[in-house]
Amino acid sequence: MQYHSTRGTAPVLDFEGAMLAGLARDGGLYVPGEIPQMSREDIAALATLPYEEIALRVMLPFTGMSEERLGDLIAKAYGGFGHTARAPLVQLSQGHFLLELFHGPTLAFKDFAMQLIGQLFQDAMSRRGDRITIVGATSGDTGSAAIEAFRGLDAVECFILFPHGRVSDVQRRQMTTPVEENVHALALDGHFDDCQAAVKDMFNDHAFRDRVGLTAVNSINWARVLAQVVYFFSAATSLGAPHREVDVTVPTGNFGDIFAGYIARSMGLPIRRLIIATNSNDILHRTFETGDHRKEGVQPTISPSMDIEVSSNFERALFMAHDRDGAAVTRMMAELKAQGGFTISDNAMAELRSIYGSGRASEDETMATIRRLHETTGEILCPHSAVGVKVAEEHLSDCPMITLATAHPAKFPDAVTEATGLHPALPERMVDLFDRPERQTRVANDLDALKTLIEGRL
Ligand SMILES: Cc1ncc(COP(=O)(O)O)c(C=O)c1O
Ligand SMILES: N[C@@H](CCOP(=O)(O)O)C(=O)O
């Protein structure tokens, strides 16, 4: 399988090459040259399989790896999850189901990909005898999942930039309390988009990138997206796919998770529509309403992990909607940077609207959804999942709806307690999280200073 950049001019790479590269050298994101197809029979056969076996069947054709090697890494990745189903589905109401993606080690959906790419990186590094430097940007969950996956690994130095004061206390402590010297939590003065821009700028400085052996663990890395494709299959087949269509609502920020759903759909999984659910940072919802993709500034919300305006994987969706035209994507990305936005052609918008729907939830609506769902179903939602449920409810039909529950409520206790009166408990293995000493470095939003700090610590 070959991978091509969304900007069209970077070298074409195989799976391992694309995974280790992270961002393509022309600033684009890697996508598969073609999307492997699964027949109705292949999909039907998944319905009774354990999660790990579904993961193997879905991911294998993208990787060029042997079945035995990939199977072994998958088994190691998911062995530590706190639920035998890995991604259990619970019913909320007639025709509406919640896919719980928060049973991994750091209690968010990021663990599904991060635990696996931890294994994939380790495997590649031990064969190549190389070292890598990871620099990641996080609004809270990617960073904690990455630090958990890479802590203590000899061949990896892992730097995570998070927006100072804009992640929850639990998220911050998950990043700042691990004692291993190879992980570095950097609290940046700015918001998530500043962190993500700094990471991309480091990749676009080719001399720096090559000197430190830079790689990415954000969903700009194709391997992250691939691992997230699997639970769309596990959920849809347990509701009757391929014999029954489903709709899926995805709480969305950086567009990685919903793009994974698009890949599942393109492989043949009968997902009728993918619904983008945004909080009041609603650039994606506005884009679908107007065809104009334009920044307005990011406001802090009670669903902080989705406080994102430069939604990096939307680039992948644009590339596919423009018939893989890298030059068109390059123009739009340049306009976004220079003018704060761009207008999408009618044809591309029609293509996007045939796949995706959208909606937004205000802060009050998010709180009311947490409260109501607790009262009516007993389910305690995190604020991100509540954004998803609220938007999904506006799109219910005779087609079953799956809403992704992307984080555990205990990661965001303030909003949950205010809405329900209950304090969601952390799992037993984390009960001393607030007693552990923190280790973090406060950094300015200054690219050169960041690069100096990183090189100084290698
Ligand atoms: C809890 C939670 N929900 C939803 C999202 C949005 O996912 P994505 O960035 O893949 O759109 C994030 C961050 O990525 C998150 O951490
Ligand atoms: N919400 C994310 C933001 C980064 O998303 P990613 O999927 O591109 O890593 C976070 O929690 O960090």
TrEMBL record:
Q: Which residues carry this modification: N6-(pyridoxal phosphate)lysine?
A: K110
Q: Which UniProt keywords apply?
A: Amino-acid biosynthesis, Lyase, Pyridoxal phosphate, Threonine biosynthesis
Q: Does the keyword Amino-acid biosynthesis apply?
A: yes
Report what the protein is called. Answer: Threonine synthase
Alphabetical GO biological process terms: threonine biosynthetic process
Does the UniProt entry include the keyword Transcription regulation? no
What organism is listed for this UniProt entry? Palleronia caenipelagi
Q: Which family does it belong to?
A: Belongs to the threonine synthase family.
Q: Which Gene3D superfamilies match?
A: 3.40.50.1100, Threonine synthase, N-terminal domain
